[in-house]
Each structure stands twice: as structure tokens, then as C-alpha cells.
Amino acid sequence: MYRIVGKKEIAFNTTLFEVEAPEVARKALAGQFVVVRLDERGERIPLTIADFDRGKGTITMVVLSVGKTTKKLSRLREGDHILDVAGPLGNPAEMVENSLVVCIGGGLGIAPIYPIARELKARGNKVISIIGARSASLLFWEDRMREVSDELYVVTDDGSYGRKGFAVHQLLDLISSGMRIDRVIIIGSAIMMKVTSEATRPYGIKTIVSLNPIMVDGTGMCGSCRVTVGGKTRFACVDGPEFDGHEVDFDELLARLRMYSAEERLADELYMQGVGACQSCQKNL
Amino acid sequence: MREQPPAERVKNFDEVALGYSEEEAISEAKRCLHCDAPMCIEGCPVGIDIPAFVKKIAEGNFGEAIRIIKEKNNLPAICGRVCPQESQCEKKCILGMKWKPLAIGRLERFAADHEKDCVRPKVTPNGRKVAVVGSGPAGLTAAADLARMGYAVTIFEALHKPGGVLAYGIPEFRLPKAIVEKEVEYVKSLGVEIRLNHVVGKTITIDELFEAGYEAVFVGSGAGLPSFMHIPGENLNGVYSANEFLTRVNLMRAFRFPEYDTPIKRGRSVAVVGGGNVAMDAARTAKRLGAEHVYLIYRRGEEEMPARREEVEHAKEEGIEFKLLMNPTRIIGDEQRNVKAIECICMELGEPDETGRRAPVCKPGSETTLDVDTVIIAIGTSPNPLVVKTTPGLKTGKHGVIEVEPYTFKTSREGVFAGGDIVSGAATVISAMGQAKEAAKAIDEYIKNK
């Protein structure tokens, strides 16, 4: 059992959890994730480690309520327990020195890009960050990102805050301004990572993405999370989650992410009925 | 032994074989000839005194029977169910020369299921610590044996439930999870501690285990890495590794979705590729999830199938459609990238290869397609490289197995022993247990002579 020691709503439907998991905290590095199971009937879901405190023995996860499990999690309170937390899993983010790195976090991807930007900055790299979301209400950690970046750009799809548009627009502006970018790291939805990777391809800029396929065990024993990278099948949980964005078959990833959409909808609907919450406005959640 | 009738059992996940009644067990036990030099014991990888426990059953003294079994076997309710007895103890039974061999496995199962008060040996702690990686059959056996010798044993398990393949691989209808839980409780009652959610290589490394005061480490991390065929269409939606399919159903209980949260695709027409026990388990599971057609595609003939005869028979009774001497060439999808068919080529058997099995050869131009919406790949597994990758100096051989000395199961790293599938590649539950028993003896000797 893993105790929730901190909980905070940091954006619309977006909750930060600080969980006691000393053994995970002791080994965690930027870029890694955990697999959690809430209760005896629960499923296993992967969540990125957005921060860790080795002294306190805690890890931080940021969760967007999108379906049954994440909604159930968002109802847990400080002092409640999560049944299983396994990790840290996956490879740590690849680190570079003496480079200019553009770190892009889209939506919930702001949480996992944060520790990577922090570590890059601590190693003396020049870090330019772009964070974005559909709308201002979904943005978070602007201050934290600013602390670990030399420059920070904020974008929203609807223009409700910062620049109107997508992260890729800001990135293309930086490129065309003549900035010599050594590497771009993108974490966000699969479609956002696809579009943004495509933008850097003609310029030959090394582009790293952190993939988010469906996972079960997270230790390499099932292949649920397999992706095609450079024409080869790889398991994101053990070979990744970071891959070269120019080699990933994003259309395959996007299709695989939809594999259980009917089941996910059903589970969500039954859950919302069960807790008496309104499906569209999520009241009572 | 009584069984659920096929028409009924394909609609549930309950155990197929119902087990002996007391009368049936006694009457079967009385068939034992009590040979002067019993060969059956030799056939048992853990060396159970078979005639002795069978005699106790014949006398109606069931408590004594299970006590004798547990001298050698820590998990009898499991072994009695899943051992391939026909190629082990029962193969050597002298009765089998002329009649049917004694049903040793069924009697072992009977004794285990009828255990009234948990028989437990006296344990005197010796104050020394041993770590075990993995809680599958090998890890549980090594841990139980070492605990009985007095060691403080800690098992590190990556998943949220102990049992390894017993928990995630072998289906409920062959091995009820309640039985696995009961056997794991017995191992814990010997003083073994099991730490779940500990991925050795990630959460903690073997070097860190030594730093934490463990004097030896037994690696029983199994062969859990699924093999794929590397044919076009293998990443379409609806294609599963058998490991994923079975893990979802057995460990995550997806057959009870949405009561349980883990989903699974319930295919109408399912192709299972492979001819081993895992393929049979996957095919029979797919049938129970409601599939109208389950095709078992195997590149050799029925004779060559590595699965147990009993499982092949069960699969046939349940309506699994065997497509023998066929091999998939590609999986075909629709616009949404969902599986809609599998293309196979016919095979014929050529000359025997180095393993003695006749190698299948393609018959050009013989391609046919089967309409399916789900494909389950059950062509084997290899050792998961996580432990090896994070343990410097651990020597490995072909397909990533850990190399060990014969008899002692010592690895190239001082104080590290290994056994089960991580050493032999995917094999049986009982052979993993046999190796773990030997390794436990070697670990005891190693620590005493340190």
C-alpha cells in the first residue's frame, strides 16, 4: 500500500499526487514512469514520474481525469492509499551536455517534460521550453518551467492565454529565427508528437518523443505497448518510452491507442452512473 | 476422474477436472504394486516418495499422505494439476507396461486438496538472509526449501500478485487462482516474506541486495519475454501475444470486465498460432470468452505438438479447430487497422533436424486465408533481459539464458544462483521446481562454507 501524502488540483481535471514510495523515489530518474493499480479490481495504468523527493521518499504524479481509473484516482484524498505502485520503469531520459535543447510539453505532457528540462538545465545546457494546452484552464506549472528554462513560451489552441496556436508554430518560429537547435524533446498527445516531429524533419534536428501506448505489466513481458520504430517492433516500456520522433510510426500508435475505446467508454459510463456524477460536466467527481 | 462436460465448461472459467472423491482415491491408490525398486520416484523431478504416500491414501490416512508429499514438494496442489505426469512419474510406473499407469498426479492433487490442518515443518532460524528474484514455481520452491533450512528469505516480485506463470499464465480452468493463493500462503507460513511491485533491475539491483545483507541471491525470473513472428500486420489491433492475452484474463480478470477494470477484446473468430500448452490455454480461454470459431494454427502435425496430450484432447472436445501443417505469412487489417484475416501457407514435414523433429517446409503457392478478428501469438517466450542487463558479470548463453554450473546452479557471479526458465528457457513448472531444489541445497552449502 502506498500512501497519498499530497494532493492538489493544478488545472481543470488535472490533479497532482504526491505518494509515499521510498524505493521508487530512491531510484527514479527523469523520464521514467510507474505502473499503478488502485484497488483489488483495478487495472494497471502507467503514470509518469513528474518529480521525486529522495529525502521524503515520495514521488509526484500528475493525472488528467479521462476515464474510469483516472477519475477514481482523482477522488482519492490525502491519507488514502494506492494498492500497487511499481517502478521506476522504462529508461531514463537521455542526457546531453553543451547543447541547446528545446523542451516541449503539451497538455499533461508538461508534467513529464519538467524533470527532464530541470536535469538538462542543471547540466549546463541551454533550455528553451514551450508549453501548451487546448485552453488556459488546462495549463499548469508555468512558474516551475520558467525556473528551469532560459526562455519559456506558452501557447494555447484557443488563444485564451499566451500565444494562440500550437507548440509547433512556436517551434517553427524559433527555427526560422535562425536559432541553432541541437535537440528537441516533445511530450504530449500522440497526435501532437506526430505533428511536431514532422516539423523538425526537414531541418534534420534530432527529435525525441516519449511514447504513451497502452501498457499492462510495464516490465516487457506482454508487448501490449509495442510500437514500430525505424521499421522494427520495440516495447515502449523497456526499450523506451523515449524514441527518435522521426522513426516512430505514429499512425500505428494512434490506431493502437483506440483499441479499447468502446470498453473504456462503457467502464467510464458505468462508473459515472455508480458515483452519481454528471457525464458531461463531471459534477460530483 | 470426473470432469465438467465440454458443452457446459466452455461457458465458464471453473476448473475442468473435478478431482477424486475419497472412494475413488482409495480405490486408485490400491492399484499400486509397491515395487521393491520404485521407478516412479526417479521420474519425479523433486523425488517424492510416491509409494509411501499412495499407501497412506489406500489406508485412508490422508493427513499422513500429504505430510509425506510435503517432505519434498512445497506446492503439491499445483503439481498434481499441471505436471506432465505422462512424461515423468507415471511414465516410469510399472503398471503402465501392461495396463494404465497409476494416476499419481491425481492422487497427489487429492491429498493436497483434502489437507485438513496445514502440515508445517518445524523451522529453526539461523539468522542468515537469502534473496529470491521472482515468485514463480522456481522462486517459491527455492524460498520454501531455504526457509525450512532456517534462512530468512525475501522474495522480490515485479507484479502485484505472487505466483509467476501460475498467476498470470495458466488459466483458472486448469489451475484455480484460489489454489495458487493457498499454496503461496503455505510458503509464507514458513517465514518467507514476499515483496510485491519490486522489479529487480529497476526498483533494486542484485548488487544492492548484497549491500542490504543478503548472503546469496537465487534468480528465478523465468522466461517471460514473448516472441513475435515478425510478419506483416503483427501490430494491428486485435493481435495479442499469448502473455498479454492470458495476463489480462488470468491476472487482471478481464473475463469479468466491467466488474474488473481491465478490458479484453472478445473475438468472434480467433486464430491462435502455436502448438504448445500456452497455445492450448489461449485457445480454450478465447472459446470461453465467447468466440464462435477458434483456429489453432500449427506448422507441424498433431504428433509433433509439444502440448500435453490431455490438453490437446480437452481443446478438441471444446471445439477448437485445428489447422495443422499451416504457418501464418501475414495478418490482414481493415481501414481502422483492426484484424480481419490471417493468411497462411501450407507446410509439409521434411527431414528431421538436429533436435530430432521433422522440420516444416513451405509449399509454395498454397496460401489460404482465414477470416478472423483476433490473433494470439503463442510461439514461445525467452528470458526477460532486465535482471541480466543490470547485473554486471552475469554470463548468459543462447537466447539470453543465464549460464549455470551443472548440479549447483551457480552463476558466473559469486553468491548468485539461478534456476527454472531463466536457465533452461521456457520449460515446465516441475522442472523449474526440481532445479530450484538443487539450487537451494547448493546455496545452503555455499553459505555454510563461506
TrEMBL record, chain A:
Species assigned in the record: Methanocella conradii (strain DSM 24694 / JCM 17849 / CGMCC 1.5162 / HZ254)
Cofactor(s), by name: [2Fe-2S] cluster
FAD-binding FR-type domain location: 1-95
EC class (word): oxidoreductase
One Pfam family in the UniProt entry: DHODB_Fe-S_bind
CC cofactor note: Binds 1 [2Fe-2S] cluster per subunit.
Name listed for the protein in its UniProt record: Sulfide dehydrogenase (Flavoprotein) subunit SudB
NCBIfam families according to UniProt: PRK06222.1
Gene symbol of the encoding locus: sudB
Keywords: 2Fe-2S, Iron, Iron-sulfur, Metal-binding, Oxidoreductase
GO molecular function, one term: metal ion binding
Any Gene Ontology biological process: pyrimidine nucleotide biosynthetic process
